[in-house]
Amino acid sequence: MIDDKDSTNDLIVDDHHDDGVDRRGFLKCMAWAGAGALYVMQGGVLKSYAMGASGRSDIPAGELSFVQISDSHMGFNKAANTDVVGTLKTAVDKINALSIAPELILHTGDISHLSKPEEFDTVDQVLKGAVAKDVFYVPGEHDVLNDDGKQYLERYGKVANGSGWYSFDKKGVHFIGLVNVMNLKPGGLGSLGPDQLEWLEHDVKHRKASTPIVVFAHMPLWSVYPEWGWGTEDSAQALSYLKKFGSVTVLNGHIHQLMQKVEGNVTFHTAASTAFPQPQPGKADSPGPMVVPAGELRGLLGITDVNFVQGRHALAIVDSSLK
């Protein structure tokens, strides 16, 4: 639940007793799209500051810094963005200009638009220009359109399990990449499936509760807007395995706009696309590429910068647009 009693300083206060999505806060988060925001956990309370108020110099240096990009949709060439290569390159420029050099990049899917080899090739080539050389992927539904993900796995999932799920550790943080686009449910909802859930339970079972957990997947693991398939049918079971951990951050793409929700020990965060925006939930007949005036497009695209500082309860997440 989001308390907007003090609307003048954009402070979000998390009510850990409410697991629902607050509509006012939901819409307030939507208003931040493209503006950029800094999230910091202080004394158990999540605070948010508009980027203009905090300034980049206020972003705390961490022991681990990484970047999330999403939905590059390489190959898309419609009116919503006729130059997805150019906006992806701008995202890389943005990454390279960060005051704290990221150690890795997470790409949360829809790397390609039509799963064509040349589309994957182009993204690989552009990302070679990023200062962070380690790039970790999960597939979006556009990456597995024609071959059930065979090409994706050959390129990015050679050491992954099943349809591409895996985990790794970096400087005390445990990263978990999940795949929720292989067996979409009616209405387009994502699903993880029993095999992946069993693997996840085993993967985290013996880890210390103090381990910071970062989960990344393409589709949201919370019900953003099920009417448009913006959620994952069996995510509740996955999240039940993560209850013991003090800090869990869940990152996703798919909906092409910034949103955040805090539920107990879990912070959910959706990233902007580097290709094109989508309408706010329920504000159009259906989801899909949204045409905006050319001067506004890059303000609605962007990257997410994440900093982890040992001993803090949560990761500091900063969104910035390509504008």
Could you describe the 3D structure shown?
It is a single chain. The chain is of the alpha/beta class and 323 residues long. It has 7 helices and 13 strands. Helix 3 (84-96) runs parallel beside helix 4. The radius of gyration is 18 Å and the shape is globular.
Short description:
With 323 residues, this protein is α/β, with parallel strands linked by helices.
Task: Give the helix/strand layout.
Blueprint: H1 23-31, E1 37-42, E2 45-50, H2 51-54, E3 64-69, H3 84-96, E4 104-107, H4 117-127, E5 134-137, H5 150-156, E6 166-170, E7 173-177, H6 194-205, E8 213-217, H7 235-240, E9 248-252, E10 259-263, E11 266-270, E12 302-308, E13 316-321
Helix pairs in contact: 3-4
Q: Helix/strand/pairing class, anyone? A: alpha/beta
Helix-strand string: HEEHEHEHEHEEHEHEEEEE
Overall mean pLDDT: 82
Roughly how many Å apart are the termini?
31 Å
Rg computed from alpha carbons, rounded to a whole number of angstroms: 18 Å
Number of helical segments with 4 or more residues: 7
Low-confidence stretches: 1-57
Approximate shape: globular
Task: Indicate the percent of residues in helices.
Answer: 10-25%
Query: Which band does the percent of strand residues land in?
Result: 15-25%
Q: Largest sheet at a glance?
A: 7 strands, mixed
Arrangement of strands in the largest sheet: 2-1-13-12-3-4-5
Give me the count of strands.
13
